[in-house]
Amino acid sequence: MKSTLLLVLGCCLMYLHTAAYHIIGGEIYYKTVGMSGDNSRYRYLITLKLYRDADFTCGDRQGCIDRFENPVVANVYTAGGERVMSSVYLYISKVAPLTDTLKNPCLSPQVQHLEVAFYTATIELAPIPGGYYVASQRCCRGEKLTNIYDSEHEGSTYYTVIPGTESRPNNNSAYFDKDSAIVICNKLPFKINYAAYDEDGDSLTYQLCSALTDGTVNNETNSTTPPPYNSTVRYIPPYSGANPMGGSPAISIDNRGMITCTPDRAGKFVITVCVNEYDRVTKRLLGTHSKDILLTVFDCTTKIVAGFPSVLSNCAESPALQVAFPNYSEAGYTSTYHWTFGDGTDTVTDTKTIFFHQYPDTGVYKVKLVVNPTLTCRDSTTGEVRNYPGLRAGFTTAGFCKENPISFTDTSSYRYGRITSRTWEFGIADSVLVTGDERSIQHRFDKGNIYTVSLTLHTDKQCEKTVTQNVRIYEVIPFAGNDTILAKGQTLVMQGSGGDIYSWQPSDGLSDPTEAHPLLNYNKDIAYVLRVSNQQGCTGYDTISVKYYTGPEMYIPNAFTPNGDGINDRFRFIPVGIVHYKFFRIFNRWGQEVYSSTDFRSGWDGTYKGMPASVDTYLWILQGTDFNGREILKKGTVTLIR
């Protein structure tokens, strides 16, 4: 049971650790909400706000994370650093999206997506001298931040101070109540109201300060270190807590909490603002509260460029005179687009979606597009519309068989123009251009297959259109069988194949000349022609010769000449009436086997171990079974002559 509990706790801690990486800022504050039942302790509502980069999906170290962890841990210490209670678990009470979009007609659209999570818990603390520190520490910050070294390993500390008995233990801390995502453009001035809120009406002053790390050595775990909290993140020069993002003029904050800056580079910057809370009556400092947030500076520069195709040809199949205008302009978020259509009409749109315009007639029209026509960041371009629709492409085919002429007929039409020529492509390397009004063409395919045939139409209105079809060409590959030697009285089942319909000529000796496998029972030399057809009407022919010898017997020559002249180059036997071959072996005069096979068609080529065998007399032995089931064994000699 103990091992199981440790395993569960380990998995939970591992989840908390890995899920922490995507947090980019936060703050912690408190509100006094009453007293305990015995009036000895104050009750405080602790709120921790954490911010997440909602555009963050995957990172080199941080993996792919898209959620806040829940719960989050905080710890309570005295001013002297003594821990006064067990860890406090704060749970999410609300999550809110923070989104801002740059809406400028002269700048490229940019969107900043953040999320803020509110974690809360209620604790009771007895008032003591020096008060308390409530701190939440964690690893790690966002990846590849511009102003912090190794930011994905840099931790965070968020803390708040509850005053002691010498001050005002029932205080309500100041906090930053304005949560927003702000799009900031490089080279352009920006202003952010970063003022805090204090329920007690205390006096507040502001300053840019250093972001706090979590105080551990390697920043690999969520920490529980006591105050004082003065370990800061490692800023990359020239950046610092007081100058976290540079700029010209540099970033600054005034006594009203207004941040101003004109950035001088794009990037992601951690900004920390400290607010000092003073009692308006005693002028005593009640505490200093800080908040971290990530400011992303975008390169928002846009060169406004009007764009649409220089030539738009309406070659649609429908004869309608409506033309679609795509808009390829580079423009700002709220740019406007002024179209002049060349037919005496114009329009202004505020979107880059395809715009449809109805022309009164066919013809060639000059078109102009102006982006931001009333602003200095405008641009324009012109183009041409050739409005001659009604081009319909199609063709039919007639014929199915290999090597027969296949007819292709163009069935195309053109409502507002004339087809001047046609290019046919038959799924092979070459193509055929046909000029004039000739609509039909024939083509022969030398192999059965599926071919992609295309027809491209060329017109007098500079419209082209291509239509394709997959054309199935059928091929019959007839086979009547191998030429055969039979013994007189031996029957043979013919082995026709390759189609659906068969016809043997002549029909002499065949049981049925319309079958693929008729039985042959004959005794004279004869040649058959097999006609094979398929269901599509394609036809092919093949022949077979049948010779009859007295047998069963094996006819074997007594010499051969393997000299490469193509005549008598192999030593082989001619079987007559033999249906099975057990072995055919050849030996030299020393009894070494130089050849062995059961295939009478190949025969011995006169080599031994890849080298030409010597001129000599060799012994052969052959055994097989004839069509009557009788074993036949023959021996003899053959002379190799070169």
Which structural traits does this protein have?
642 residues, mainly beta, Immunoglobulin-like, 5-stranded mixed β-sheet, 3% helix, elongated, PKD/Chitinase_dom, PKD_dom_sf, Gliding motility-associated C-terminal domain-containing protein, T9SS_type_B
Structure in words:
The chain contains one helix and 47 strands. The chain folds into five domains: about 25-300, no CATH class; about 310-385, Immunoglobulin-like; about 390-470, Immunoglobulin-like; about 485-550, Immunoglobulin-like, CATH 2.60.40; about 555-640, Immunoglobulin-like (Sandwich). The strands form 14 sheets. A seven-stranded antiparallel sheet has the order 1-2-7-6-5-8-9, with no helix packed on it. It starts with a helix and ends with a strand. Helices cover about 5% and strands about 45% of the residues. It is elongated, with a radius of gyration of 47 Å. The model is unreliable at about 1-20 (pLDDT under 50). By secondary structure, it is mainly beta.
